[in-house]
Write a structure and sequence with these properties.
binds zinc ion; about 20% strand; 3-stranded antiparallel beta sheet; globular; alpha/beta; binds nicotinamide-adenine-dinucleotide
């Protein structure tokens, strides 16, 4: 069967070689912070300053000069550009390295670090500045109502209908650099299998959900993703 409609899912592993930490690896973000202190709505209600500080630090790191898209981001952007049929990149990452590499057909299911959302007016706006409990919304001028535009544990990921539709139609599902820990993303391979798609995992090591994939290639994203994309473009 020829691949025609592609869905790619990416996680923190695709950005690791760009200098951004993953979550669950031994030296990952969750070895230094507790999820329930910085990445839940309850944490934000209890201690907004601590949550702002966490994302301020991550945003500054993302904007630091040394953080750049890598060869895996570039290969996925090239695949989108050269693919003649349907293509959707779904990322769990809240960084913007896919966009910087040239990806355009993408959804950020867990939100975006370089945007803020206002609890008063609902506006989502671009923001590269540090946030505080006194920050002012550009759209409605309320103060103290801004939060990072990211999906916290216990919240519903974004664009689930759009993603579900693409998964139900896809012939090829490729998962890159994700540990298969966090649902609903970890369940996408099952939806792709149900649609009859070829399913491929590209990761440093077999993920928790590796047994659901028909194929796996293991190694660093900057090596295995360009190889896989080149082979796919040569022989769809
Ligand atoms: P993860 O850290 O759980 O897994 C990363 C995976 O990438 C691992 O399987 C690891 O083996 C692999 N990997 C590491 N380096 C690699 C490399 N160089 N090349 C290829 N693979 C590599 O990250 P995840 O799966 O993305 O985590 C799930 C998602 O949960 C996150 O992306 C995040 O969006 C979300 N999350 C967000 C928050 C938040 O801050 N709001 C909190 C918790 C989880
Ligand atoms: Zn507002």
């Amino acid at each position: 069967m020829k691949a025609r409609r592609i869905v790619v899912l990416t996680g923190a592993g695709v950005s690791q070689e760009s200098g951004l930490d993953t979550f669950r690896d031994a030296d990952g973000i969750w070895s230094r912070y507790r999820v329930e202190d910085v990445a839940t709505p309850e944490a934000f209600a209890r201690n907004p300053r601590q949550v702002h500080d966490f994302y301020n630090l991550r945003r500054r790191n993302l904007l630091a000069g040394h953080v750049k898209p890598n060869a895996a981001h570039a290969a996925l952007a090239e695949l989108e550009r050269r693919w003649p049929d349907e293509f959707l990149l779904v990322t769990q990452n809240i960084d913007d390295l896919h966009e910087r590499a040239g990806s355009r057909k993408l959804v950020h299911m867990h939100g975006e670090m370089r945007k803020v959302r206002c609890a008063a007016c609902g506006a989502v706006t671009a923001n590269d500045a540090d946030l505080s409990v006194d920050s002012v919304c550009d759209a409605c001028t309320s103060s103290g109502t801004l939060r990072p535009h990211v999906v916290w544990f216990g919240e519903m990921p974004l664009e689930m209908e759009h993603i579900g539709g693409a998964l139900a139609r896809c012939n090829l599902f490729i998962s890159v650099g994700t540990s298969g820990n966090v649902y609903p993303a970890a369940g996408f391979v099952a939806e792709a299998n149900a649609a009859g798609a070829r399913t491929v995992e590209l990761n440093l090591e077999p993920s928790l959900s590796h047994s659901h994939f028909a194929e796996g290639r293991y190694g660093k994203a900057t090596a295995i993703v360009p190889d896989f994309v080149a082979a796919l473009l040569a022989k769809p």
